Amino acid sequence: xxxxxxxxxxxxxxxxxxxxxxxxxxxxxxxxxxxxxxxxxxxxxxxxxxxxxxxxxxxxxxxxxxxxxxxxxxxxxxxxxxxxxxxxxxxxxxxxxxxxxxxxxxxxxxxxxxxxxxxxxxxxxxxxxxxxxxxxxxxxxxxxxxxxxxxxxxxxxxxxxxxxxxxxxxxxxxxxxxxxxxxxxxxxxxxxxxxxxxxxxxxxxxxxxxxxxxxxxxxxxxxxxxxxxxxxxxxxxxxxxxxxxxxxxxxxxxxxxxxxxxxxxxxxxxxxxxxxxxxxxxxxxxxxxxxxxxxxxxxxxxxxxxxxxxxxxxxxxxxxxxxxxxxxxxxxxxxxxxxxxxxxxxxxxxxxxxxxxxxxxxxxxxxxxxxxxxxxxxxxxxx
Length: 383
What we know:
By secondary structure, the protein is of the alpha+beta class. The chain contains eleven helices and 13 strands. The chain has helices at residues 2-19, 24-39, 84-95, 120-128, 162-192, 203-219, 235-242, 244-262, 287-302, 327-343, 360-366, and strands at 43-50, 55-63, 77-79, 103-106, 131-141, 144-154, 225-232, 269-274, 277-283, 310-316, 350-351, 371-373, 376-378. It has a six-stranded antiparallel beta sheet, sandwiched between helices. It has a five-stranded mixed beta sheet with strand order 8-9-7-10-11, sandwiched between helices. A hairpin with a 4-residue loop joins strand 1 and strand 2.
């Protein structure tokens, strides 16, 4: 009874650790560590079956790692044909209505009643790494093999047995549920922070990243934060004369141009704010580097076969724009610069703070009232 209670607590602990993970790596580590502890292993690994490559790829190694075993390996993979039990045991057993049971391998080879699929490669690996036995549990997603859980014990410890394999099957099911839940949450997060048409980040993602960047700048004033706000000229005309499908194509193409230019700045975030407005957020590169990229963006935007080019405004803490204590102020400055570029039909970006001590862009951004637009009046994007 005490052992059953301990194993129940181990299952609950594993599920809770996976639920608390914020990144895929944290989720993988939590799964492997939880299984290692639950089974009393010295080492554990989580692997995914890459069908398109015909290989098992190790996602994480935890516990007492042998030489060459990294916690998060870049490319530790094994051809599936080295592990016939994966293709044969998994598919054949399930096709007959069976369940994906775990099995045990030992340095002595097959062990009656505990080994479902004898594999010379695994036995050789156990001997090479100083381990006495391992239990392998298939991880199943949507009725198909997703990967495997592998837990090993050292040579001088008791070998795994059939009860351990049965428990590993339960743990693999919990891990499968945790992975599925995490993937659903990741997809929800991706959709929440992604513009559906262009695939770029959306306004929500920009707000979150810009808040973080400004907080970092306030703590480390030498860290430069720059924002490029772009307005795609002529979109309404394209929509009115050629239809919204063509207008959407223009938005997608400009999104690709923006993404290409954003790649010139390490770690930059490119986004569609909505309608015909886009932005590029950079943390780290100098203001001059960002202006050069904005200039390239104007050139490439003008070369698009549709539309009438792009109006770009730049605001950077690396320029004399006064203290930037909030994300809203940087947004207002970049927006004011973009308005000036659009009003002047400028083929180059307008940069806040570069027109002397009485810079009209800075004055416009600091005005408390609405900011004018061509043919309209609207407030800067509020927070």
